[in-house]
Design brief:
- Its cofactor is Zn(2+).
- Pfam families: BKACE (PF05853).
- The chain has 304 residues and is of the alpha/beta class.
- Helices cover 40% and strands 18% of the residues.
- The protein contains ten helices and 14 strands.
- Helix 7 links the parallel strand 9 and strand 10.
- The longest helix has 15 residues.
- The protein binds (5S)-5-amino-3-OXO-hexanoic acid and zinc ion (ZN).
- The site of zinc ion has 8 residues, from loops.
- Zinc ion (ZN) binds next to loops.
């Protein structure tokens, strides 16, 4: 019997953009982040993508020591691949953003492949409007966020982390970011297989229509041929529909409360594992198999 294709599920446990006022289920304390990551791994996530927060008010905290307590617990209780953010929050400096990964030298770190205007919900729907106002009130107080990732910034993160054997989840929010990645690949600063996380439905980036998904995939196929592992991230209500398209087309998937607070229309997800289980059901429904952490390490050529 032919072996089934393995699909890597990444779970982005808490992030930096959503605020505790948006959902009581958002992990905030180190203990909550560790527990939620371990549950997500037990549900089938081979990779956990991690940010840290101030336990008092949930604000993003990019100090290396803020990552210590949950990284130790996750390492003790799970063999999931740890992916540490270098995006932090759009308001942070590049030097602050790279420090946790430079300190902890993880197998994987996120790398955002271009600067962009950063918003949250392009298409206001009945249950987003309330969130958007809270977000801008709680978090931004204005609408003018620029998520800065210049070529110099990207090269700084690449050179700082590559020397420790860390590899990257390349966050591409539009086709321009795929060409930026091609630039660094041709310059020999990144080596395949490239783990490309194409992001859909975030205001400031490409939309979440299936044509957008096909456009990003065709562009990546043309630029990188076989030398990449394609994964998708759908923001908000787009999370599972985009995951289903990717799984059907040979790709991998990312879920988690960082990217979407929802389990369905108007229904807040209670756990990260809940979203992992939903993605798993789609993958297994397609006759595919969820990759274990060791299989993900092999597919992504990680240092282990
Ligand atoms: C859309 C996601 N927030 C992308 C992300 O996870 C960025 C990062 O942490 O570096
Ligand atoms: Zn992130």
């Amino acid at each position: 019997m032919a072996s089934k294709r393995k699909v890597i599920i990444t779970c982005a446990v808490t992030g930096a953009i959503h605020t505790p006022s948006m959902s009581e289920h958002l992990p905030v304390t180190a203990q909550q982040i560790a527990q939620s990551a371990i549950e997500a791994a037990e549900a089938g996530a081979a990779v956990v993508h991690l940010h840290a927060r101030d336990p008092e008010d949930g604000r993003p905290d990019q100090s290396p020591e803020a990552f210590t307590p949950f990284l130790q617990v996750i390492k003790q209780r799970s063999d999931a691949v740890v992916n540490i953010t270098t995006g932090g929050a759009p308001t942070m400096s590049i030097h602050d953003r790279v420090r946790p990964a430079a300190t902890w030298k993880p197998e994987l770190a996120s790398l955002n492949m271009g600067s962009m205007n950063f918003g949250l919900f392009p298409m206001l729907t009945r249950y987003d409007a309330q969130l958007k106002h809270q977000w801008e009130r709680d978090y931004l107080g204005n609408k003018g966020i620029l998520f800065r990732n210049t070529f110099e910034d990207i090269e700084h993160i690449l050179t700082t982390l590559t020397e420790h054997g860390t590899r990257f989840e390349f966050e591409c929010y539009d086709t321009a970011h795929l060409y930026n990645l091609k630039h660094f690949h041709d310059a020999g600063l990144v080596k395949g297989p490239l783990f490309i996380q194409t992001v859909f439905g975030l205001m400031g980036g490409i939309g979440a229509h299936y044509d957008d998904v096909m456009h990003m995939k065709r562009t990546a196929d043309r630029l990188f041929g076989e030398n990449y592992r394609w994964s998708v991230l759908g923001a908000g209500k787009n999370q599972l529909p985009i995951a289903a398209i990717s799984a059907a087309l040979g790709g991998h998937v990312r879920v988690g409360l960082e990217d979407s607070l929802w389990a369905g229309p108007g229904e807040l997800a209670e756990t990260n594992a809940q979203q992992v289980v939903a993605a798993r059901q789609i993958i297994e429904g397609l006759g595919l198999e969820v990759a274990r952490p060791d299989e993900a390490r092999e597919l992504l050529a990680l240092k282990g």
